Amino acid sequence: MRPFHLASLLVALPLAACTDKAGDTGGFIDPGLVDEDGDGLDLNTESELGTDPTLADTDGDGWSDGEEVDLGTDPLNRFSWDYGSGRWPDFSAEAEAAGVAGTAWDTDEVFPDFTATDQFEQEIHLYQFYGYVILIDFSAGWCGPCRDVAEGAEEWWEEYREDGFLIIHAIIDNNFGTGNVSETFIQGWAEQYDLEFPVVMAGNDTEPNDAYLELYNSGVNEGYIPFMILLDQDMTLVRAYSGSGLESSISRKVENLLGL
Fold first, then answer.
1. Least buried of 21, 113, 146, 201, by fewest C-beta within 10 Å?
2. Phi, psi (degrees; rounded to nearest 5) at 173
3. 45 Cβ contact partners less than 8 Å away, ≥ 6 residues apart
4. Would you say 169 and 59 are in contact if contact means Cβ atoms under 8 Å apart?
5. Could you report the per-residue pLDDT of 106-151, keeping only the tens digit for each?
6. How many C-alpha atoms does 139 have within 13 Å on its Cβ side?
7. What is d(CA 140, CA 91) in angstroms, rounded to the nearest whole number?
């Protein structure tokens, strides 16, 4: 009879994880449980979700895939993010890579970028929302029709937001017709109408106000408010609107631009 060698048995055994009663794997790690990109999701979970296991933020919206799972948003949809948090997505690098640079203030022209202060007292840039269909609504506190628009704006936006639609309220004046807009005023506007999209200061000495005046000088803006401009995904000014009660007309154009 040939002698029995323990080494022969070890070679013949398959390389599998063995656990004791305490669950000790003896140092073996299941490859499917590895978090390669550090987003808080293991490879098995990434496979189930369809996210990129080598990229922490698959959709590039600024939230890691793990954060989106925790928040209940879609890590595969760049338009699904933590609404109302004041932490906006930023696709300005994509706009730069695409060579987007507006120089004109007219329809069918690429709209220039601007910087503004939002209701969270932080600075945002128009081009960080590159890839969205954007409605910029220039309104004032003393304007009744502007407030009529604001009343239904959140519900209107929610209908299309995860398809890539964004509203920005640019407040050009407070309640007193002075052209002064404070952070407190836009915060109150956002709170009063439960707005989770950006509300920015566009009063005197701000870049949004400069844009409003440039649109007036070009003839696109006839001087009425609410005054709204619709930008397509490439920041081209598609159409301008004045007055309230235009949601249905604008929605049809939005749906067309979104391919709905």
1. 21
2. -160, 155
3. 69
4. no
5. 999 999 999 999 999 999 999 999 999 999 999 999 999 999 999 9
6. 26
7. 29
Cβ atoms within 10 Å, residue 196: 17
Q: What does DSSP assign to residue 219?
A: T
With pLDDT > 70 as the criterion, what percentage of the chain qualifies?
Answer: 89
SS3 percent helix, strand, coil of the chain, rounded to 5, is: 35, 15, 50
Note the pLDDT tens digit of each residue in 21-41. Answer: 444 555 566 777 888 889 899
Match 């407070």 to its residue by tokens: 174
Q: What architecture (CATH level 2) is domain 92-258?
A: 3-Layer(aba) Sandwich (3.40)
Contact 124, 169 (CB under 8 A): no
What Cα–Cα distance (Å) separates residue 18 from each residue in 10, 14, 80, 231? Answer: 13, 11, 42, 59
Domain ranges of the chain: 24-82, 92-258
- Residue 225 in contact with residue 212, Cβ under 8 Å? no
User: Is the Cα dihedral 170, 175, 178, 181 positive or negative?
Assistant: negative
Indicate if the pLDDT at residue 84 is higher than 50. yes
User: Which residue reads 């701000």 in tokens?
Assistant: 206
